[in-house]
Amino acid sequence: MPTFSAPDGTQLSYRVTGHGDPVVCIPGGPADSQYLGDLGGLSAHRRLIVLDLRGTGRSAVPDDPSSYRCDRLVDDVEALREHLGLPLMDLLGHSAGTNIAAQYAARYPQRISRLALIGPGGRAVGVTVPAEARREAARLRRDEPWFPTAFAALQAITEGTGSDWEAVAPFFCGRWDAAAQQHFKSSQPENPQAAALFAAEGAFTPEATRAALSACGAPVLLLTGEFDLNSPPAAAAAFADVFPDATLVVQPGGGHYPWIDDPDLFAATAAAFLRD
Questions:
Q1: Among 88, 115, 151, 232, which is least packed by CB within 10 angstroms?
Q2: Residues 42-60: tens digit of each pLDDT
């Protein structure tokens, strides 16, 4: 995998797949970017440049653990853009990675041509998901055989009496077959320190970020799944309201990984946005 040097000297890796104009992709987690795959076949339309966040995948562990903080990861994205020699770039983020992408767009609006936020996490702009909203999203799956056990675990988590996140995993996927289970496992953070410090104090300045993004001239796509417990459609819509030129797409039957649930629909939607 090709590498480049971050501003603090940490060696970071990225992988390239597909052909055509580049799209820089930021994973969530922080997790090994391999879980993004080729985003359901999006690589047939665009050249995907997928970053391994510091301390994940094949990127090096930094000397300074505080550099795992979300706002500081923005510097790594800018270093990658400079390394690639892109005067402008299309930027795609997933889940927690959308917080990095949003803060990048706020800090470097002149460097963004298009911004795609998939399963968006809204902490960077102060969008939160109330516990009842998560339970409401979960109830859409009431006919699934795993629902009673998973919902009981979710109820306990949202009430502060439980912490069985493994039991609620089915709610993050549009379907819960063997392939989805394996993919979900591969998407989980493997570096506890990186995960713990991602949202450390100072990582987010929502009011300032919202103000900067309200003047962002780039077109923005926010795509979330109908069943996405992490990023319910209402939360994605609130995130979309921050931008002057945003399109919200709710993928039917999709969960937090919509390119897994319906690869063709996801790739067609994302490609059309990036092409237009």
A1: 88
A2: 999 999 999 999 999 999 9
